[in-house]
Amino acid sequence: xxxxxxxxxxxxxxxxxxxxxxxxxxxxxxxxxxxxxxxxxxxxxxxxxxxxxxxxxxxxxxxxxxxxxxxxxxxxxxxxxxxxxxxxxxxxxxxxxxxxxxxxxxxxxxxxxxxxxxxxxxxxxxxxxxxxxxxxxxxxxxxxxxxxxxxxxxxxxxxxxxxxxxxxxxxxxxxxxxxxxxxxxxxxxxxxxxxxxxxxxxxxxxxxxxxxxxxxxxxxxxxxxxxxxxxxxxxxxxxxxxxxxxxxxxxxxxxxxxxxxxxxxxxxxxxxxxxxxxxxxxxxxxxxxxxxxxxxxxxxxxxxxxxxxxxxxxxxxxxxxxxxxxxxxxxxxxxxxxxxxxxxxxxxxxxx
Length: 352
Hints:
Layout: E1 4-15, H1 19-27, H2 32-39, E2 42-53, E3 57-61, H3 68-75, E4 83-88, E5 91-92, H4 98-107, E6 109-112, H5 124-135, H6 140-153, H7 169-182, E7 187-191, H8 199-216, E8 219-224, H9 227-233, E9 236-241, E10 244-249, H10 251-256, H11 261-266, H12 272-275, E11 297-301, H13 306-316, E12 320-324, E13 330-334, H14 336-351
Parallel strand pairs: 3-8, 3-9, 6-7, 7-8, 11-12
Antiparallel strand pairs: 1-2, 1-4, 4-5, 9-10, 12-13
Helix pairs in contact: 5-6, 5-7, 6-7
């Protein structure tokens, strides 16, 4: 199990002239609507407790006004909390001096913005070098080599001498990603990084991010309002509503065990077959009948998607579906009944 990289404890953020006074009203039970109506303060975050694991893509999602972008800006302290703590590797970011905070921002935490945030009068290479320039400690040649390397990794070799205005939106976002990766930080904050892109380009960027992550194993904290995007890239997903954390878990947790009606409505139209892993419908080997017919058995990895298994079943019509772990060892089986039940739930959702 991955260790906790970022820990958020009892975090509150109140916007207004006197947030400390407004905080007292919140502690006494004043809600978001009442706080705005009676006291003219906005409750941005309400008692957020969250653990974000290292080497994983942690998605924080919600609708507009849910507090997701406010939350991510507390991780590198672009916003000051009204109450609570944010810890990175057990260091309290909220208690750091400005010098310590600069160290964290330069060496440990990088950010990719929705609007690219490129410097228009800098070349693409200079934009990617920008974080390295701020950090110092490298020669001009070393910085140029490193920037060129990351531009190639994100598929932009050959554009080093161009300017941001010459590139498409998708290409500009690749530059922003390369700039963040070049600083070698452990943590990558991505605030609605792909939401301004066309659907096809957005899918390409998601694919590239997943490919890079399979090699780099960063802690990526990804903000989105799009459930499909969250389910596609997230190792775990946290859902916010009105500044409060409603549920955190894997895609399977969110789909199969929604905490309340809000989450239930949120996931109602999701095609579970495309999202669920085989592990969600696997039964232990001990439950396999002794007389099970293995004449046309197939094997499937436990972390495969149910969608891929369904394709195999349609093509091969197996009598037995064995499940293996990541090392290829048998660890369970999938019954026809559990597979049919999963498909049936999607059919019912579609009809509803």
